Amino acid sequence: MQSIPKRSTLLVAVAVVLLTSWTSVTAQEKKEKSLYDRLGGVYAIASVVDEFIERLLVNDILNANPAIKEARARVPKAGLKYRVTELVCEATGGPQKYTGRSMKDAHKHLNITDKEWDAMVADFKATLNKFKVPTKEQEELIGIVATTKADIVMVPEAGKK
After folding, report:
1. CB 3.0 to 4.6 Å from 36: which of 52, 91, 92, 129, for a disulfide?
2. Contact at 8 Å (CB) between 115 and 83?
3. CA distance 89 to 96
4. Cα-based distances in Å from 114 to 45, 47, 150, 152
5. How far apart are CA 75 and CA 52, in angstroms?
6. For 78, how many CA atoms within 13 A lie in the half-sphere containing its CB?
7. Can you say whether the dihedral through the CA atoms of 48, 50, 52, 55 is positive or negative?
8. How many CB atoms are located within 10 Å of the residue 110 CB?
9. Contact between residue 153 and residue 108 where contact means Cβ atoms under 8 Å apart
10. Residue environment code for 2-31, b if the CB has 16+ CB neighbours within 10 A, otherwise e
11. What DSSP assignment string belongs to 27-80?
């Protein structure tokens, strides 16, 4: 008869260990979920980037800048979408690696102004809203984009407006 209580104790101990392990793994998975995963991975990000680039291509404020217009004529739309998708995936914790030029090198000749930057951000937010990206993830994405502003927007020379 002693084997029954030992067996019950063993079963309870195993159940407690399994439950504790499962709870710990579940909590860890929730805690460690990257922005990339919360956005839905590469296919979801590529869909958003596709829409975003299409918006940029018809943006009157951006099209008024001759340097941007010239760059668009040189860079294939599909290539731009690919590079931006790569960049967003890497920046949000995905396995992809951005292989393009630095933001500074890619934009230094475009003479991008604060007004043009703001137009781009507005298009980005509109795109995120269209895809119903949750507020928390939108804020994280906008924060990531904001870190590139100093490398993209031209600093006006002293005495010029």
Report:
1. 92
2. no
3. 6
4. 26, 27, 10, 10
5. 16
6. 0
7. negative
8. 19
9. no
10. eeeeeeeeeeeeeeeeeeeeeeeeeeeeee
11. HHHHHH--HHHHHTHHHHHHHHHHHHHHHHHT-HHHHT-HHHHHHHHHS-HHHH
148, two tokens: 């590139």
Q: Which two tokens stand for residue 64?
A: 């008024």
Q: Is 147 helix (H, G, I), strand (E, B) or coil?
A: coil
**Residues near 13 by beta carbon (within 8 Å), at least 6 away in sequence:** none
pLDDT of residue 153: 97
Dihedral sign (CA 79, 81, 82, 87): positive
Closest C-alpha among 79, 103, 108 to residue 91: 103
CB atoms near residue 91 (< 10 Å): 18
- Closest by alpha carbon to 152, among 111, 91, 92? 111
Does residue 39 register a pLDDT over 70?
Answer: yes
Query: What are the tens digits of pLDDT across the range 88-120?
Result: 999 999 999 999 999 999 999 999 999 999 999
Task: List residues bridging with 112 in a β-sheet.
Answer: 153
Which two tokens mark 16?
């407690």
